[in-house]
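Go through this:
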Amino acid sequence: MRPRPGDRLPAGLVVVLACLPGLAALLALVLCARGVEQGADVAERPVAARHAAAYQAARPHIVPRTAWLTDAARRAQPPPRYDDKVIAVFVHHTDSPNGYDCADVPRIIRDVYTGQTGSRDWDDIGYNFLVDRCGTIYEGRAGGIDRAVTGAHTQGFNHRTTGIAALGTFTAGVPVPKAMTDAIAAITAWKLGLSGTDPRATVRLTSSNSQSRYSAGTSAMLPAVAGHNVGYMTSCPGAALTARIPEIRETAARLQGRP
C-alpha cells in the first residue's frame, strides 16, 4: 500500500525503507533482530550460571553422626534451627588430649557430646563439624550436612556461620597436623562456596548476644574464616591453630578455584 500524497511517514519507518528494499527485507530485518536478541539472552544465561557456580568447591567426604552417636547415647532434643545461608566459619579446638588413635575418634566425639549436653545442658553438640588429626571430617550438630544449621559454637555469632572443631589442644608450640588443616580448608571451601563467599574476605555478622565481643545487635565486619577468639573472649582455638588460619583461608580459596 502506497502512502497518499501529503501523508507523513514516521521517521523510523523512513529510515528502514531507505535502507531496505521492500517489505520482505523489512520482515527479514525484524526477524534477524529478534534472533540476535534471543541469541544474546541464551548466550548470557549460561555465562551467568557459570559465574555463580565458578567458585564452588567439591564437598569432601564427611562421616555421618550415626558413626559416633548411638541410639542409646542420644538425648532428647528440639528440632534443628536453620539460617538462610552460611557466610562465615569459626575454627575451634576441643581442648582435649592430642595423642589419640584415630580409630577412637567416634568415642571421643561422643564424650564431647555427652559433656556438652550433660553438664552444660546444651540441646546438642555445638560444633557443626569435627576434624581429627588424620584429616577425617565428622558431622557434628544434627540438621543436615548440606543445610545452614544454626550451631552453638560461638557466643553471639552462631547465625549464618559454621563451627569446625579440631580434635585436640593446640596451644603455642603444639604441632598442628597438615592433614587436619587441609581437612578444615576442604570443609570451609565447600561450605562457603555454597553462598559464593571468598574464604579470604570479610563479612558482616550481627551479634545476637552481649556475652560475645560485641553487644547484642551490633553489626561487625569479621573474617569469613576466623578463630573462635575473634567473636568471643577465649583462647580457643589455641595459638598454634590460630597461626594456621591464614593458610587455611588460602587453601580454601584455592580449592574454590579462586585466583
Observations:
- Confidence is low (pLDDT under 50) at residues 1-50.
- Residues 105 and 117 are 18 Å apart (CA to CA).
- The longest strand covers residues 88-93.
